[in-house]
Amino acid sequence: LPHMTSTQIKNMSQGVDEANKPMQMDDSKRRTKVVASLGPSSWSEEMIPKMIAAGTNIFRLSPG
Hints:
Oligomer: single chain
Number of strands: 2
Helix content: 25-40%
């Protein structure tokens, strides 16, 4: 592997941070629906709003 400067490493890590953020989209143009399963690990008052903010349109209930 080639050596990288600290600036190059910093720039790469910023790209990774950006890649992990949800995409900002105009929902009026999106034709795909996001279906999420609610089960034991996601069945909380804190998790459901996070899933909606991430783009979930429909929830499927899984008794887990």
